[in-house]
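Input record (one chain):
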Amino acid sequence: MKAQLIQILSLIIFLMPAAWVSAAHIHTPQKLRATRMAFIPGGSYKPLFKQRGEPAKELIKPFLMDVHAVTNEQYLAFVKANPEWRRSKVKRIFADKFYLRKWEGDLVLGDKVNPDAPVTDVSWYAANAYCKWAGLRLPTVSEWEYAANACEYKAGKEGKKELNGKLLARYSEKPPEKLPDVESCGRNSLGVYDMDGLIREWTYDFNNNYITGSAICGGGSGDASDPANYPAFIRYGFFSSLKANYSLDILGFRCVKDVK
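The corresponding structure, as predicted from the sequence alone:
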């Protein structure tokens, strides 16, 4: 009977592709606000770049994704619980000198930082450590792009053109000195916010070694699955220039969780 009930509950979750899984995890041992997670249904994804011999489409398994990026408030709880990730104590091999540079102190956000805005100036190592601490993980490039492509624009070439135009406009804007709250940059059809412009986000495999400068420039775009997807070229080009200890003021992260 218990096994049948588990199967029924699993089926219900699977049939709710756009539903939010409320309080799916709490990022901290303390009772801070829980981050809702959206159920991302499995499907096929066509990567912008792939290695020779790989299939044209990649199978994406269902997973849960934070509906918004990790906030300053949530990351503050992490550094309180993990002193080795405080600004004055983190090793430079894991985070450069710009790590959490806008914070007033190790455990003080200060007036220049919005507690409900996405945390930025964090390295890949720091983002990965946070996710592990929360019992979660960083999304892969394919998972992030797959979730980001779930837009509410009309289907077909015109819809893609409209979305690309919006993204290019966002990417050309200078980020504000003080970032706004999470969930302020639009929600896509899967219930995930801010995938198209509030910040850029670390992924687990951000530095795939087969994504090179020649692949992302105009001359090499013929090898891409969608040469007209200019925002994706910008994203891939941006991440191909990074090292895992870099900390940038436009770069944060969100967590995902496997569905078992």
